[in-house]
Every structure is written in C-alpha cells, then in structure tokens.
Amino acid sequence: MADTEKSTGHIERTLETRHLSMIALGGTIGTGLFIASGSAISTAGPGGALVAYGIMGIMVYFLMTSLGEMATYMPLTGSFSAYSTKFVDPALGFALGWNYWFNWAITIPVDVTTAGIVMNYWLPNVPGWVFSVVVMALIFLINYLSVRSYGETEFWLALIKVITVVVFLIVGVAIILGIMGGRPVGLSNFHYKQAPFVGGVPAIISVFLVAGFSFQGTELVGITAGEAATPEKSVSKAIHSTFWRILLFYIFAIFVIACILPYTDKNLLNQDVSNITMSPFTIVFKRAGLAFAASVMNAVILTAVISAANSGLYASTRMLYSQAREGYAWRIFGYVNRRGIPIYALLGTMVVSLAAFATQFVGPQAYNYLIGASGLCGFIAWLGIAISHYRFRRAFVKQGHSISELKYHATAFPFGPIFAFILCIIVICGQNIDAFVKMDWQNILITYMGIPLFLILFFYYKLRYKTHIIPLDKVDLSRRTKGESYEPEEK
C-alpha cells in the first residue's frame, strides 16, 4: 500500500548544491572539448573559434538564467516541458517533452557505443559491444538505486574531467611561456598565415554548430531542480558557477590549444575517439613530456562518455515521468517507488535505448538515421526554454506581480531569451547547408529529421485537442503541476 501512495506523491529532493553544480558543468565537458575543439580551430582559425565559442557561451548563459528564473520559482521535474505546457501551449509542452525524451533515449546507445570504442584502445581483441552492454548495465544500476547515487556518481565523474582540464591549462600555459617543452611559443600562431580569422563569417557560423553540441547538457540543471533539496539557492548557484567555468574551461582551453598548435596542424582535424593520440589534449601533454598522455586522456574520455550516458538516462527517465504526470504518456510511467525512483519510466527508457542500440547490428544505415533524428533535439529544447521564459515573465507582470517577488532574476530580459531564440534558429537552419547546395536529399533527411518529427508531435496534439496559445492573463502561475507541487517554506 505504501508504494501505491508513493505513486501519487513526490519524488525525493536529495540533490545538493554541489551535485547540481557538477551536473550542469559535467554536461558541458565531454568529447566536444577533448576532441572536437581542435576541428573548430582548424575551420575558423584561433580567433574565429574563440568568437564562436564565446558567442555560444553567452547564449547558453542567457538560456541558463532563463531556466533558472523559472526553476527557482517553480522547480518541477520535467522543467521546460512542464513550463511550455503552463506558459505557452499544451501542444508545445507535449512535443518538447517527447522530443527531449527521444533525444536522450537515442543518445544513450551512442554514448555506450563510444565507450566500447574507447575500451578497445586497451583491449582491441574484445568486441566493443561487450563493454557497451557493461556500461549500459552500470548506468541502469546507478539510476535504479536512488537519485542521490546518480548525483554522487555525476559529481565524481565531473570532478575527474574538471581536474584534467585544470592540469591541461597549467601545462599549456607552461609550454606557452617556455617553462616546459622547449622554447616559448607565445602568441605566434595567432598571426600565422591567415590567422587569427580563417574562412570569415561562414566559418564562424559552422563552428557555432560544433560549439552548440559541445554545450548541450547544461539544461540538465533544470531537470534536476525538481529533486534539489533547496532549489531556490542551489539552482541559482549552479547557473552562475557554470557560466564562469564554461568561460574558463572552454575559452581558455581553446586559447591554449590555439597558441601551441597552428590551425594548419593536420592533427586538429581529428574528431574520432578511436584515434585518441591525435586529441589536442594528448598532443599538448606529450609535448610537455607526459609519456602516458594517450592512456590518461583515453581514461578521461571514458569517464566523459559514461557520465554523458548516465545523465542521459536520468534526464530521459525524468522527462518520461513528467510526461506521464501531465497526462501525455501512460500513467504507469508516473509511478514512483519507495526510493523515490520513477521505476517504470526508467525501465521503459532502457528498453527503447537497448532497441536503438540493437539497430546497429541490423544495419549501420538504420543506426545513422536514429542518430540523425536526435541531432537537432537539443536545440529545439533550447528554443522551448527561450519561448517559455519570455511568456512566463510577461504573464507574471501582466497578472499584477512584481519582478522583486522572484528569488532569482534572469539576465538582460527580454534581450536574453530573444537573442537565444534567434541564434538557435540560425544554428538549426545552418546544420547542413552543403547538403542543400549539392541537393543531397538523403543527407538532408538525416540531418533535419528531428524538425518534422517535432512538428508532427506538435500538430498532432494541437489538432486532436484543439489547443491554443494561452492568453497572458490566463497563464497558470501556481507552483504545481498535475503530479507534483512545490511551495517554498515561509521565512
């Protein structure tokens, strides 16, 4: 009977500020930084890469503060999907929720497959799928035990990545100044040949895409807000600390790589985890005399992909749970067990992820289509955050509330969400311009498949239930959704 009662109650609020900070930060530090950052420098030059990552970092910060303002006022599991339902249109919440769940459910098998490739560096004779299945079982166990076990795991995995980047920055600066690795290199590579800007504005826009994928995962702090012990404090702290860490880790790391390696270095073109010896991080560590640089970076990248898969399972489980509580999915997925885990949402997500993982044995083309379909889902989620926050703030004022009532204020409203919305549209449209130029319809289909899938979900719900954009004076600002509520303690 306890379980039955629990199924209509709250999930556990046990995540601390340190968990949320590392979850938000850990979501941004992955193969995008350790491997793909080199291709950004090669494409747009050192100056172009810094401009692209800088602008994208500012956009992500605006999105984070938008999400933070809503999450501290109304910390709900499922966050931006629930906010879209309450502040914009139930059809948008329905489409965003299923879009985001699908994104992570499909990304999990991609990450565990990558883990198998990484493990083959040490054990080349063992089939990669064996390691992938082990990782899949591991992340399921972590998410099955408790939300705190997920938080602790992410904290320590993110800490490993953070320490690696800090050591890299120290070693890199030492090489630049000539303290390690021979003569000082200074800023000579910033005016080498066509540097610092190579390829002009089109090259910078193409790097936006790489930067955007690198920063995806920061919105996880909104998902975790529903299980934070003190969301008013921990969410705002996590957002502010994440901005400065993104600035430090991404911008400074790219600056260090660009100083040490010229943009013409062929090693910067590598984007394959199976060739870890060509990672910019590995090359810099080797130049400093670290003999086991490749093995060290391989181990770090392994922690990064396990962390990504772990976060993906958590996020997709909570989104499916939220969809069930909103009435957008079967009610059984809204069931919560004694440990505060939406167990059927977890099992349902695992089944879909395993099915997606199995498609690679049927044929690589099927697997590529699945990956392509999820490619734009993260940017669509960001669009949803920007739209929801713009509507939330306007409705809040329209209904006679004062901005001073909000415990956390988003930065530069309304510029922030409008800027984020426009940049996300540019990034989505610019995903694969070459395919349109060459009229490569198969490539176009794989790249942009996520857009028609989202629109089908949106218009299906809109036409079936005849929903409309909610008038600002009718927007529900009460701090509850169908399955859960939150009211902060009175001071």
TrEMBL record:
<feature type="transmembrane region" description="Helical">
    <location>
        <begin position="101"/>
        <end position="123"/>
    </location>
</feature>
<protein>
    <submittedName>
        <fullName>Amino acid permease</fullName>
    </submittedName>
</protein>
<feature type="transmembrane region" description="Helical">
    <location>
        <begin position="200"/>
        <end position="222"/>
    </location>
</feature>
<feature type="transmembrane region" description="Helical">
    <location>
        <begin position="369"/>
        <end position="390"/>
    </location>
</feature>
<dbReference type="GO" id="GO:0016020">
    <property type="term" value="C:membrane"/>
</dbReference>
<feature type="transmembrane region" description="Helical">
    <location>
        <begin position="129"/>
        <end position="147"/>
    </location>
</feature>
<dbReference type="Pfam" id="PF00324">
    <property type="entry name" value="AA_permease"/>
</dbReference>
<keyword id="KW-1133">Transmembrane helix</keyword>
<dbReference type="InterPro" id="IPR050524">
    <property type="entry name" value="APC_YAT"/>
</dbReference>
<feature type="transmembrane region" description="Helical">
    <location>
        <begin position="341"/>
        <end position="363"/>
    </location>
</feature>
<dbReference type="GO" id="GO:0015171">
    <property type="term" value="F:amino acid transmembrane transporter activity"/>
</dbReference>
<keyword id="KW-0813">Transport</keyword>
<keyword id="KW-0472">Membrane</keyword>
<feature type="transmembrane region" description="Helical">
    <location>
        <begin position="20"/>
        <end position="41"/>
    </location>
</feature>
<feature type="transmembrane region" description="Helical">
    <location>
        <begin position="243"/>
        <end position="264"/>
    </location>
</feature>
<keyword id="KW-0812">Transmembrane</keyword>
<feature type="transmembrane region" description="Helical">
    <location>
        <begin position="284"/>
        <end position="309"/>
    </location>
</feature>
<dbReference type="InterPro" id="IPR004841">
    <property type="entry name" value="AA-permease/SLC12A_dom"/>
</dbReference>
<feature type="transmembrane region" description="Helical">
    <location>
        <begin position="411"/>
        <end position="433"/>
    </location>
</feature>
<feature type="transmembrane region" description="Helical">
    <location>
        <begin position="445"/>
        <end position="463"/>
    </location>
</feature>
<feature type="domain" description="Amino acid permease/ SLC12A">
    <location>
        <begin position="19"/>
        <end position="469"/>
    </location>
</feature>
<keyword id="KW-0029">Amino-acid transport</keyword>
<feature type="transmembrane region" description="Helical">
    <location>
        <begin position="159"/>
        <end position="180"/>
    </location>
</feature>
<feature type="transmembrane region" description="Helical">
    <location>
        <begin position="47"/>
        <end position="64"/>
    </location>
</feature>
<dbReference type="InterPro" id="IPR004840">
    <property type="entry name" value="Amino_acid_permease_CS"/>
</dbReference>
